[in-house]
Amino acid sequence: MWSGPRNLSTAMMYSFGARADCAVVDEPFYAAYLMKTGFDHPMRDEIIATQPTDPAKVIDTLLGPIPDGKAHFYQKHMSQHMIEGVPRDWVHRVANVFLIRHPARVAASFSAKYDNPTLADIGFVQQAELYDQLVAAGARPVVVDSADIRRDPETMLKRLCAAIGLAWDPAMLSWAAGGHPDDGLWAAHWYEAVHQSTGFAPAEGALPDLDGPRAALAEAAMPAYEHLRAVALSL
């Protein structure tokens, strides 16, 4: 599952993690990304200490045996982690889904938690690149918009499961409050709202009004978003 920040990605991980047949992993390339970029994200040193910083080791885990003997492995990935030096060829060996959200909502939400975000920080361009890479190789990746999931979780999750050949499980509609055992170490900084949830939040209202750098950021991300939105599963 390829997402960007502030994009329903953790709730989706909880949804799949509620299935008895599904193991999950939370942003396994995060430490490698921090090490290669030098970015000073919250909890940087702790994240680097608790995750592999060698992308090859991460990939070996992603393509190796599924944890806990489960039948399926839900991998929550941030598209912006796929920087130069992180191989992408392994993506052809897994089923790929792209989770998108309107750039105005991402720009508003992410900038409230992270100072002066850039286009590279929010993952839209990398999502579009990965999608095009897969299509060029003959794959049929799936795109789903978080807004549609929030409007009708059951319908959209059923359609998503059908698109990737996974049997529907109504357990995906709810989870226990308080987080998931496989949350990344950074959950304390980023996941407060979703830790209080037991299911998907209702549909969002009007798009936020943005100005200045946030408006420019959202505008810059729109072409990549619209490219993927055009092929997204629909209600």
From TrEMBL:
- GO biological process assignments: branched-chain amino acid biosynthetic process
Which named protein is this? Branched-chain amino acid aminotransferase
Gene3D superfamilies to which the protein is assigned, alphabetical: P-loop containing nucleotide triphosphate hydrolases
Organism encoding this protein? Roseovarius gaetbuli
**Keyword Amino-acid biosynthesis recorded:** yes
Q: Output the Pfam families linked to this UniProt entry.
A: Sulfotransfer_5 (PF19798)
- The signal peptide stretch is none
Which keywords does UniProt give here? Answer: Amino-acid biosynthesis, Branched-chain amino acid biosynthesis
Family according to the record:
Belongs to the class-IV pyridoxal-phosphate-dependent aminotransferase family.
InterPro entries in UniProt: Class-IV_PLP-Dep_Aminotrnsfr (IPR050571), P-loop_NTPase (IPR027417)
